[in-house]
Structures are given as structure tokens and as C-alpha cells.
Amino acid sequence: MENKPLPPHVFIFPLPYQGPMNSMFNLAELLCLEGLHITFLVTEYIHSRLLTSTDIQSRFNSYPGFQLRSVSDGLPDDHPRSGEKFVEVFDSLELKTKPLLKHMLLTSSGGLRRPVTCIIADGILGFTCDVAKEIGIPIIYFRTLSPCCLWVFFCLPKLIDAGELSLDQSDNMDRLVKNVPGTESFLRRRDLPRFGTFGDLADKTLQLSKKEGQENPRALGLILNTFEELDGPILSHIRTFCPNLYTIGPLHAHLKAKLSPQTTSLESSSSSLWNEDWSCMTWLDSQPSKSVIYVSFGSIATLTKAQLIEFWYGLVNTGFKFLWVIRPDIVAGKDWESQISQDLSEGTKQRGYIVGWVPQKEVLAHPAVGGFLTHSGWNSTLESICGGVPMICWPYFLDQQVNSRFVSEVWKLGLDMKDSCDRVVVENMVKELMEVRREEFSHRAEEMAQVAKRCLSDGGSSFCNLHRLVRDIEDMMIQD
Predict the structure, then answer these.
(1) Residues 291 and 242 in one domain
(2) Which is nearest to 276 in space by CA: 55, 17, 25?
(3) What is the pLDDT of residues 336-392, one digit of tens each?
(4) I need a surface site. Which of 108, 184, 278, 422 has the fewest CB within 10 A?
(5) Is a pLDDT exceeding 70 seen at residue 334?
(6) How many domains is the chain partitioned into structurally?
(7) Residue 99's pLDDT band (boundaries 50, 70, 90)?
């Protein structure tokens, strides 16, 4: 009997941050379900955190074709690797990790695994394309940020030439932006990504993002975590740069739709870098339908003590129940805890539940949650859309600025609170979302959740695009 040929071997390399990794782990599991072999590469720093906060290996135990490997990011153990240090992480990956990656790719076959058929790398890691072309392996990029922000990045050369990024704090930040086609009627200067100091065109993050319009088309295709029905107009513009798009999102919901109810328990399937506190689910079980405002600013955003106190007063003063994620590192230092007044403490005891981290997808799917005060990270935005939960957006940096504007003005799924951190504004926005315009926002959010669900069903746009991606990877193996 003839031996069955080995399946394609896909090598996945995410940007080493929580959001991009979540998306790529979901993609890896989807490809495992399609019978592909996967090598998933993380940095040693990330690997250590995964082992501390979750048993990631248990998630993939049922997939013999999956292996998790680690590589040095070239930074010292005590490097913070947080938001403002992003460029240092990127520079070190390009300088120190690139040669290690090349060696790993050249020696990745053996036993029951064929040589690498295809690389799927985060599209901001341009050096991965250099390595792929040097050794002759096809590469597909995956951009885990929002398409609307990616399109702004592609337009950065025009924005710079037109002087629309030469800003200072005295400029009219509500002036409409003219050089991002398709957004001329609603995108304001204040909605553009924040690159370091206002007006600093030499900012390294800005220059890195500017390269994406030239970098991303180098790959054979571009995977996006969205669905055609949500981002269709923007996707048509992106296709002028990258014609071969695979829109296969929302990935977390796509994976859930593929898995059987008998699959591993929810708690063991997490890839969170923080320990999840599941006690919040019991607390939610005791709350009435759509009565709780859920608050989380993601895994990177930080607050000042003053901002924390303003949010706290605003939430307590609404009179609504609230579930709030306050990460251990969300405020520098610990002395802020001693500054919580008696009235805040009492108000929280009556109406609030505060934890260090939560299983967010499950929280947003809980019937007690009626609104989400969010930093507008793309994963959080998609999880809120799939949960049918309207949003109040308080963006922190990069794509979050653009996302929040699309939530309020394009998709009509909530309110944009950017550039404001005042207890009265917080209180009024929560009341508007949860009370004054509750029916309007709830109806729109539930409608969009149904659209997202349909795109994942047999014949839906994301369902078909995933199968096209798998078929294209299999064709690479045949051509090998």
C-alpha cells in the first residue's frame, strides 16, 4: 500500500504581543482542523509567560501535527517590552532573531514532518519576507490589526506629503482628513493613529508603519481578521495594493464554529498572557440581563492615577453594575490603591466587581453584559461585535484611534470617547449607551452579530475564504 503523503507544513510567526498572538493561535488551530502541520514560533519571553499563565500545550494536544517552538528576541529579561518600547522589540527581532529564524526554517523538517511549505508571518515583520525569499519558501502575511487602520497606514505617504500629519496640539483636531480615500466624510485628524510626538515625521513607529504599503504586497497574499460584510468598502481599497486577500474573521468565532461541543474545556483553551479570573462569571450569573457595563483597556494600555480615579468615579456615579479589569501593571506603582476614597470603595462594593484579568470572549457572550467600555483593540472590537455588545471607545494608541471612529460613525455600534477622561463624561456616556439609547444600540449590535455569524456558516464569505487559503497552501506543496 502506498504511503499517504505528508500534509503541508505551515510555519507561523506572530508579533510577540497578546492581541496578534491570540489571532494567530486561532488561525493555527483552524489550520490544524484542516489537517495541516503547524510549527508555531514564539519568543522565549512569551513562551515563559504562556507556561506561567496557561497550559497552552493542552489546547493543541489533540493535534499531533502542531508544535510550539521558541526563539530569543535578543532583549534582556528585564526589558519591559511594553507599548512605548515596541520599536526596540522590533529592532531586536530584525537584528538578533532574523538569523535564528533562517536557521530554524532550513532545519525544520524530519520524521513525520515535511520541509516548510509556507510561512505565515505578521506583516509588520518585513524581515520574514527577506528570509523567505532567500531560501525560496512562499510567504503569506497576516495583519492582525483592523483593515481600516491598515488602509490609513497604506495612505501615510500621501498624508505626509499633504501635511496632514504635521500636527501640533494647537491644530484643529476635528478637521476632516482628505487623503484616506473612502473616509473623507468622517475621519478627523484626532482619529489618526498616534505616532509618538505630534508632528514628528521622523518618529520610528510612523516610519515603520509607512513602509507597510510597500512591504505587504511583497507576500503572495494577505490574511485579515475581518469579514467582507463589515469592512467591504475599505477592503476594496486595500485590494488596490494587495489583490489576494483572505478575509477569514472573526477568527475567534470562526474557530468556535468549527469546534465540536465536546472539545477541551474553555479554561484550558486560553492563550492569555495573564491569569484569568473566572470568578467574574459567577458574579455575572447573578446579574439581570444587559445590566452590567464591562470595562477593560486591554493588555498594553496604561493609566495615570488621575485617569483611574476619574474612570472609577464615573462608573460608580452611573448607578449601573460594572465589571472592571484592572491589570496589576495598569498604573505604575502601588500607592494608588491607598488613594481610593471611602465613597468609591462603598460604591464599588454595592455595584462593582474588579479583577486582574478575565476570559473576555466568555464575558462578552454573557447575557448580563449590556455594554463594553473598551480601548478599541481590534480583537476586543471583534469579540464585542460577535457578542452583540455595543461599545464606548476610549482608544490608547495606533489602530485603536481609527477603530473607535469606525465603531461610532460607520458601524453605528457605540460611542467614541477619545481624548476625554472626565468622570462626568464617563458617567454620561455610560448612561447614554445603557439607558438613553439602549434599544437603538442593542438592536444594531445584535443585527451585526447575526451578520458575523452568517459569514462563518457553510457558503459564507469567511467560510469560503478559509477553504481558499487551505487550498492555496496545498497547491504550494504540489508545486514544491
Answers:
(1) no
(2) 55
(3) 776 788 888 888 889 999 999 999 999 999 999 999 999 999 999 999 999 999 999
(4) 184
(5) no
(6) 2
(7) very high
If asked whether residues 190 and 253 sit together in one domain, one would say: yes
Omega before 250 cis (within 30°)? yes
Distance CA 309, CA 424 (A): 12
Q: Is the model's pLDDT at 264 over the cut of 50? A: no
Q: Are residues 172 and 84 in the same domain?
A: yes
Q: Can you give the chain as a three-state secondary structure string?
A: CCCCCCCCEEEEECCCCHHHHHHHHHHHHHHHHCCCEEEEEEEHHHHHHHHHHCCHHHHCCCCCCEEEEEECCCCCCCCCCCHHHHHHHHHHHHHHHHHHHHHHHHCCCECCECCCCEEEEECCCCHHHHHHHHHCCCEEEEECCCHHHHHHHHCHHHHHHCCCCCCCCCCCCCCECCCCCCCCCCCEHHHCCCCCCCCCCCCHHHHHHHCHHHHHHHCCCEEECCCHHHHHHHHHHHCCCCCCEEECCCHHHHHHHHCCCCCCCCHHHCCCCCCCCCHHHHHHHCCCCCCEEEEECCCCCCCCHHHHHHHHHHHHHHCCEEEEECCCCCCCCCHHHHHCCHHHHHHHHHHEEEECCCCHHHHHCCCCEEEEEECCCHHHHHHHHHHCCCEEECCCCCHHHHHHHHHHHHCCCEEECCCCCCHHHHHHHHHHHHHHCHHHHHHHHHHHHHHHHHHCCCCCHHHHHHHHHHHHHHHHHHHC
Q: Is the pLDDT of residue 197 over 80?
A: no
Give the model confidence (pLDDT) of 213-259 as tens digits: 788 999 999 999 999 999 999 999 999 999 999 999 999 999 999 98
Within a domain: residue 120? yes
Residue 207's domain comprises: 9-267+456-479
pLDDT band per the 50, 70, 90 thresholds, residue 262: very low
The amino acid at residue 465 is N
Alpha carbon distance 147, 236 (integer Å)? 11
pLDDT-derived band at 267 (thresholds 50, 70, 90) equals very low
Q: Give residue-wise pLDDT tens across range 363-373.
A: 999 999 999 99
pTM over 0.70: yes
Is residue 244 domain-shared with residue 312, that is, in the same domain?
A: no
Question: CATH no. for residue 20?
Answer: 3.40.50.2000
> Taking every pair of C-alpha atoms in the chain, what is the biggest distance, in angstroms?
77
Residue 4 inside a domain? The answer is no
